[in-house]
Design a protein that fits this description.
mainly alpha, 3 domains, two-stranded antiparallel sheet, 21 helices
Length: 568
């Protein structure tokens, strides 16, 4: 209970700082924006700062102080705006505020539990440890290839790994983003309950109640997971674009009305790429839609320039970090590799890409057995049993598509069909996902964008038909689907009994081994998880690994061969 309360207090402090930072950025784009807009832009601006900072310095308390100072400065400069927003929040019903408080407490309670996220032990905790001890290390991926997976999520974890939360940071970041996602979803559900479902976007967010509830009660809220944060950014951006298409369908959109929201959508899409590379096709296609939208708005050349600047600021230092840590801007892809001495051997990068693809097709099966199409049948058999990522989104998609095809001609008023443009990036992203690494968790944002888009348009048609279905009845069906998807919740809370205070990450048993150059590397004695072991630690020991400068880890690593475990 005490741990959960401390987590909530920390989330509030983080949210206040991010809102302050975001308000500074958005003031330069548009005079009108919301608290949630400021939060998301503050998150993006913080990550950009950490990307640039980490190229020259370790992420240390000084970086946190600078972020906190920027947040407080933003609140002071924009005090009148903040005061008005706080006055507006008083209009919220007490019941909605109480429900949101309960949801936040439930998420915080789960965040107080033990870390069961496998990849945190495999490489996430080690990545954070490197970031908090050194600036971006040249050739770090030669030590452990997954340390070259250049995700900005770890930078934010490193910023939280300071002061009282040192070595306990892994409880904070996923839950913070889930709490932020609940804001529009709870507002949409409240409107449906109050029979105010005139906007199609209400159904878009109401459908997202299903995955958001699952993340809150069963998903990973403890650990350095990248899947949930990436999906949340993509779904928030998709929701903003859905709302824009709906407003355009209702009446002409006035220049300036959507500046902050479109800027948020574009920035979050760019940020999602830095969180997880597998979303790159979906994000780029969606960014294309944003650019087309802004291009059609007359007199918005300055705003388009602002979005391009934000896009470059988010991606350029991220690409730079990739080149520093692996020699490739998009590692494990070997495209656009730089001819630098610390570059990971091409064969090593290719084997890691092949290994990821093999694990995505059939977990724990060696790559030669997953080539061709032999993997497709057992993959389909496993996929069809997944409630969250197959059964429910497919059912919602089919119901929405059926309503569109069969009842559209019976509608009494125009329906938001323009929002179906969101299917273009989703289908493009799913095609790339299926070809490269068809693990369902990698496709989470695309799957639910398709389901929420088609489901929302289909429900709007049912609402506008001559014999409309009561909104509360539809909401009841979505709640039943949520319960079906979330069967097994008690286990998520039973494990809390094993928690005694502020538990840290598990301790891995490691053994010291020396490479041919005399470099001492720590290797797990059991399994392949280093957790929070002393650096340098890797489960894939290579005799050819050596330091570029024997007296300085910052100068990084070189390697001329493959670890024996990956050689075949």
């Amino acid at each position: 209970m005490v741990v959960a309360v401390c987590i909530i207090v920390t989330w509030i402090i983080c949210a206040v700082v991010l809102v302050g930072i975001g308000s500074i950025v958005l003031r330069g784009v548009t005079p009108a924006f919301s608290l949630t807009d400021a939060f998301w832009i503050g998150l993006a601006a913080s990550v950009v700062f950490l990307e640039i900072w980490s190229l020259a310095f370790a992420v240390n308390p000084t970086a946190d102080y600078l972020l906190a100072f920027a947040g407080l400065a933003g609140l002071c400069v924009n005090w009148d705006w903040l005061a008005q927003k706080l006055v507006d929040t008083r209009s919220l019903s007490k019941s909605k505020t109480a429900i949101y408080a309960v949801i936040v407490f439930i998420i915080a309670l789960r965040a107080a539990g033990p870390c069961e996220h496998y990849d945190t032990g495999l490489y996430g905790a080690q990545a954070v440890r490197w970031i908090t001890n050194y600036p971006a290390v040249f050739g770090l991926a030669n030590l452990h290839a997954r340390l070259g997976f250049n995700t900005s999520v770890f930078l934010f974890h490193a910023a939280l790994n300071q002061g009282p939360w040192k070595d306990m940071y892994f409880r904070l970041f996923p839950g913070l983003l889930i709490c932020a996602l609940w804001v529009p979803i709870l507002g949409a559900v409240s409107r449906v309950i109050q029979r105010d479902s005139a906007r199609t976007s209400v159904w878009f967010y109401t459908i997202l109640l299903v995955p958001t509830t699952w993340w809150s009660t069963r998903g990973f809220v403890v650990g350095t997971t990248t899947d949930e944060p990436t999906a949340i950014l993509a779904l928030v951006a998709s929701g903003i674009l859905f709302e824009w298409f709906e407003d355009r369908n209702r009446e002409p959109v006035r220049s300036g009305d959507w500046d902050s929201r479109l800027f948020v959508a574009a920035t979050l899409l760019a940020l999602s790429i830095t969180f997880k590379l597998s979303i790159v096709v979906f994000a780029i296609f969606s960014l294309g839609i944003v650019v087309v939208i802004v291009w059609q708005l007359k007199g918005r050349s300055r705003f388009l320039t602002s979005m391009c600047v934000a896009f470059v600021l988010v991606l350029l230092p991220w690409l730079g970090r990739g080149i520093v840590t692996s020699g490739y801007p998009l590692f494990p892809s070997t495209a656009l590799g730089f001819p630098v001495e610390w570059r990971v051997p091409t064969r090593y990068a290719e084997i890691n890409a092949l290994w990821i693809q093999s694990m995505a097709r059939l977990p724990n099966v060696l790559p030669p057995q997953t080539r061709g199409l032999a993997w497709l049948h057992p993959w389909l058999h496993a996929v069809m049993r997944n409630r969250l990522l197959f059964q429910l989104p497919v059912a919602i998609t089919l119901l929405g598509s059926t309503a569109i095809l069969m009842l559209f001609s019976r509608c009494l008023q125009p329906t938001c069909l323009h929002a179906l443009w969101l299917l273009f990036p989703s289908i493009g992203g799913l095609s790339f996902w299926f070809w490269e690494a068809p693990d369902l968790r990698f496709a989470l944002p695309m799957i639910w964008t398709v389901a929420a888009t088609l489901g929302a348009v289909g429900l709007a048609i049912l609402r506008d038909a001559r014999k409309p279905m009561p909104p509360r009845a539809i909401l009841a069906g979505i709640l039943l689907a949520t319960l079906y998807c979330g069967f097994g919740w008690p286990r998520s809370y039973k494990i809390l009994k094993s928690v005694h205070g502020f538990d840290q990450l598990p301790v891995a048993s490691v053994a010291a081994r020396s490479t041919q150059s005399g470099l001492v590397v720590y290797v797990p004695t059991q399994g392949n998880q280093c957790w929070n072991a002393t650096i340098p630690c890797t489960p894939y020991f290579s005799q050819t690994l050596r330091l570029r400068d024997p007296s300085d880890f910052r100068r990084g690593f070189r390697s001329d061969g493959l670890p024996p475990e990956l050689g075949p």
